[in-house]
Specification:
The chain is built from ten helices and five strands. With about 270 residues, it is α/β, with parallel strands linked by helices. The chain has a single domain, classed as Rossmann fold (3-Layer(aba) Sandwich). The protein has a five-stranded parallel sheet with strand order 2-3-1-4-5, with helices on both faces. The chain is globular. The model has no long low-confidence stretch (mean pLDDT about 95).
Amino acid sequence: MPADKPAEKMKRKDYEKELEKLQVELCHLQEWVKAEKLKVMIIFEGRDAAGKGGTIKALTEKVSPRVFRVCALPAPSDRQKSQLFMQRYIEQFPAGGEIVIFDRSWYNRAGVEYVMGFCSPAEHKRFLELCPLVEKFAVDAGIVLIKLWLEVGMEEQERRFEARIEDPLRQWKLSPMDTESFGRWYDYSRARDLMFEATDTKHAPWRLIRSDDKRRARLNVISHILKTIPYKKIARDKIKLPKRTHKGRYNDQASLRRMKFVEERY
């Protein structure tokens, strides 16, 4: 992990230029994953307001949702609470030709559940013991597992929380759980360190990203993913549109006049 943060935040123009290059490569990766039936799983974890959502959006906005599938599970139902803890997550694991992105994951048990008292100390301990075994099982089954932790600084997190409070377009991002968690910075730090100690394994290592600069963080994440998954550019036949036939031609716009269109207010 780099000790020093960049001197200044990345300019939008530079960011968009580099992002476009990386997104082109993601399209090549997508074709390779489909062709080779690869199974890829990317876990995004980190502190609240670390930039997970924006990073996932940058990662997925130019690719097919049939290949890049985002999984953001809600709180478990009563039935799911009675199941094995990992069961509802395992149901979402990728099939051949899929990249599944977990916007938070089973590591909720090592973070919010542990800090906020939603699981017992025994359940937390048991999770940390079993998690590496489950991940080993997934990796041995051919899944490429990438675990990413976005680390935002205390001051920057507070600034982002304040911005959300003032912005009606982002207020939905603040839940009562977020505000309750805000005051427990060091509790989350200790929980994070326990999690890393138990689950940063050779077969499923964690990779950390400084995210005080959201733009740099997004580029670094995408670059790391592209570097981690070996892929080749697949040559595609040039697409040529066929000629339209005029057989059965009629005034297809006239038939729409009896229909009601949305009011053109713009």
